[in-house]
Amino acid sequence: MSSYDIIIVGAGPAGATLGYELGRRGLAVLILEKEKLPRGKPCAGGITFRAANLLDFDISAVTEGIAYGARIMYQLSDECIKRHKEPLIYMVMRSKFDHFLVQKAQEAGAAVIDGVRADQLEITASRVKVVTPEGPFTAEILAGADGAKGMVAKKLGLMRDVELDLGLEAEVSVTEDKLSDWDSLIGLDLGQIPGGYGWVFPKKDHLSVGVEGPVHLSKRFKPYLERLLQHLGNYQVTDFKGHLMPMRRRGMAIQRGNVLLLGDAAGLIHPLSGEGIYYAIKSAQLAAPVIASALRSGTINLKDYQEAVDTQLMPSLELGRVLLKLFTRSPRSYFDLVKRSDLIWWHACRVLVGARPVCA
Ligand SMILES: Cc1cc2nc3c(=O)[nH]c(=O)nc-3n(C[C@H](O)[C@H](O)[C@H](O)COP(=O)(O)OP(=O)(O)OC[C@H]3O[C@@H](n4cnc5c(N)ncnc54)[C@H](O)[C@@H]3O)c2cc1C
To answer: Which domain does 36 fall in, by range?
Structure first.
């Protein structure tokens, strides 16, 4: 079959979730993924509890551990450890987690073709055609879940001026002793890159270590990552990659005609924390009912999707931008405040577990 109700370009958390949501609504769904699955993705691999709680299935089969707290450092010297009585973040390897979501989409009825890149789009008012090396596929609706700098946004001329952060990440083998230092804790280091931070996210048998911040400061990232790695003691880097992180502003178009954008393709990353998986999943869940009702009614109007993103997701992302400005101005005060008072930590925990709707 080469004709579908909807084609989704990209099988990351956004594309897989949309495939799952629409597959179980009985629609004919095709997910096209350019990589062979399972595929890796540069990522700390932190799935906040609020993100996991969006899913109506259990993800423990693909989790590597659970964080109950954080070691927060200032320029790798001063530090404090903050703990919470409840679990905060699941640790995952993205290759396994993302593939698990794709399998859920397949079980729900979505067709998945991996190792095939969407190269060209032909879009008319009633139909979209996606041209690939395996031939063309057509559908009534197209979803761009193809990540940062995705081809769908580019072909439509959307997200051109989106602000970009960069994340640089290494998978690192360390001794058992060093690994146990991070048992149930993530690490955050502040104050070395304006508007950015370093992080350590422990996995079952290694550490994911990285830095992120504004893309124009990217020259400073590698030396900083090396300092961070040296701080961890004896280590061996097994993998080392960078990836862009786009951040939308309210009003930027993420829908046009019979096409819409999800997740990173729509710039839905939290400016302060860099969390994107929650927004990838949530944007797919906001898009699904709009798409299903458009197909049912025969009138393709996807405007309600952008409206839903603006009202339900943008307040949290906009607050993140304000907090980022304060944090960039004075990371030392931010650190001192977190160190001395439990109030900010308590609020952050409420956000991570989803008890507060707006992300701080
Ligand atoms: C270093 C780093 C660390 C991060 N850590 C975290 C974290 O700990 N927690 C968190 O919540 N977020 C984190 N993020 C953000 C998170 O990784 C993203 O927000 C998330 O991956 C977005 O999911 P997505 O499905 O929108 O896009 P992606 O996961 O990027 O998936 C897009 C998919 O589209 C495919 N694709 C692209 N072009 C085409 C094409 N032409 N044809 C077919 N397929 C195509 C790609 O191969 C890819 O599989 C991090 C990001 C970075 C860079």
So the answer is: 3-352
| Distance from Cα 152 to the centre of ligand 1, integer Å | 15
Q: Is 360 among the domain residues?
A: no
Please report which confidence band the pLDDT of residue 240 belongs to, taking 50, 70 and 90 as the band edges. confident
pTM of the full structure: 0.97
130: left (phi over 0), alpha (psi -120 to 50) or beta: beta
* pLDDT for residue 358: 56
Q: Classify 330 as helix, strand or coil.
A: coil
Residues 6 or more apart from 154 whose CB is under 8 A from it?
A: none
The four Cα atoms 110, 93, 218, 245 give a dihedral, to 10 degrees, of: 30
Burial 198-237 (b: 16+ CB within 10 A, else e): bbbbbbeebbbbbbbbbbebbeebeebbeebbebbeebee
Bridge partners, 214 (sequence order): 165
For residue 288, the domain's CATH number is 3.50.50.60
Residue type, 10: G
| 275 in contact with ligand 1, CB cutoff 6 A | yes
42 lines ligand 1 (CB under 6 A): yes
Inter-axis angle of helices 314-329 and 303-312, nearest 10 = 40
Count the helix, strand and coil residues of the chain and give each as a percent rounded to the nearest 5.
35, 30, 35
Query: Is 11 near ligand 1, meaning CB less than 6 Å away?
Result: yes
> How large is the average pLDDT for residues 171-200?
94
For ligand 1, what atom is nearest to the CA of residue 243?
A: 53
In a domain, 92, yes or no: yes
**Per the domain annotation, does 357 fall within a domain?**
no
What's the total number of domains in the chain?
1
Q: 118: Cβ below 6 Å to ligand 1?
A: yes
In a domain, 359, yes or no: no
Rounded to an integer, the average pLDDT of 63-86 is 96
SS3 243: strand
Note the residue count of the chain: 360
What CA–CA distance (Å, rounded) separates 153 from 148?
9
Distance from Cα 332 to the centre of ligand 1, integer Å: 31
- Pairwise CA distance, residues 100 & 57, whole Å: 11
